From TrEMBL:
This is Quinone oxidoreductase. Pfam families: ADH_N, ADH_zinc_N. Keywords: NADP. The lineage of its organism: Bacteria, Pseudomonadati, Pseudomonadota, Alphaproteobacteria, Hyphomicrobiales. The keyword Acyltransferase does not apply.
């Protein structure tokens, strides 16, 4: 089968053996894949948790059909339209754990379905389970114009947040954040953004920050969070290391929590997917929660899809059809 593989000379489409499902695995006939920021690093040979390196089939988000079941797989049958996340997505076939997938709603095509699994699982966990957002609270999403950022704003709005703020350093994308739930859009590269947040919250700061940037905005986040507020760190687009004001962190008594799928067990991931199904799946089926598709590329043009992502001018998801 065709797959997009990282090799000694970089990533390219290659022929590899079709995988065989074992245990609770499902074999998926892939129809479409969503690109994610982590894919760009793995395309350069960087590790993502335990995954990566020479011989790795890239990709982590897909939609398609069940082609075969492992002996212990439950909850799906051959022919079901499904969407999910996991390694080796950029291929004609991939394997998925039966607890790390969703049934694709009948009112979505494969391209639309491929935009959702990572964003839904990541941001329901960050905003609701870990972030504990409550109706009437205020929320700031750092890096709001990414696919997961747009989903975070929508989930916060769905759960009753009274004020949703999104950040983007791009003026055009910042201007579109209100279409996806933002009451206020700020430029996190402008030092004045903290003052804008404090003005919007009557000087208190927000109840919750979902931070996909970290690095250079870490201390500004502390200043923009209210006393006894919460910061959930889900990314590091602003760098992996930075100065941190421990005194301000202590003075404001902020709960600062880091989350990632890279160190979660499959049991923990299954639980996250189940929470999405129980809590917000009706909003997915009704299309209340959805993501814009910026551009669709064919599998043969997957390198162009990555070039489009790396140009960093898109809003929403980039999709590759297989």
């Amino acid at each position: 089968m065709k797959a997009y593989v990282y090799g000694p000379d970089g990533a390219r489409i290659s022929d590899v053996a079709q995988p065989k499902p074992k245990g609770t695995q499902v074999l998926v006939k892939v129809r479409a894949c969503g690109l994610n920021r982590a894919d760009t690093g793995m395309r350069r040979g960087h590790a993502h948790g335990a995954a990566g390196g020479v011989g790795t089939v890239l990709g982590m988000e897909w939609a398609g059909e069940v082609a075969e079941l492992g002996p212990d797989a439950k909850g799906v049958k051959i022919g079901d339209r499904i969407m999910g996340s996991g390694g080796a997505a950029f291929a004609e076939y991939t394997l998925a754990d039966h607890g790390r997938l969703f049934h694709a709603p009948s009112n979505m095509n494969f391209e639309e379905a491929a935009t959702l699994p990572v964003a839904l699982a990541t941001m329901h966990n960050a905003v609701v389970t870990i972030g504990g957002v409550q109706a009437g609270q205020s929320v700031l999403i750092q890096g709001a114009s990414s696919g997961v950022g747009l989903m975070a704003m929508q989930i916060a709005r769905l759960k009753g947040a009274k004020l949703v703020i999104g950040s983007s350093t791009d003026a055009t994308r910042r201007g579109r954040l209100k279409d996806y739930g933002a009451d206020l859009a700020v430029d996190s590269s402008d030092p004045k953004w903290v003052d804008e947040v404090l003005t919007a919250t009557n000087g208190e700061g927000v109840d919750l920050i979902i931070d996909q940037v970290s690095g250079k905005v870490a201390n500004q986040n502390l200043a923009a969070t209210k006393v006894k507020g919460r910061i959930v760190n889900v990314g590091r687009l602003g760098g992996t290391h930075a100065d941190f004001n421990f005194d301000l962190h202590a003075a404001r008594r902020i709960d600062y929590v880091g989350v990632t799928f890279r160190t979660r067990t499959i049991e923990e991931v299954r639980e996250i997917f189940e929470e999405v199904r129980k809590d917000i799946w009706g909003a997915v089926e009704s299309r209340k929660l959805q993501l814009p598709i910026d551009k669709v590329f064919s599998f043969d043009d997957i390198d162009r899809a990555f070039e489009h992502m790396e140009a960093n001018r898109h809003l929403g998801k980039i999709v590759v059809t297989v």
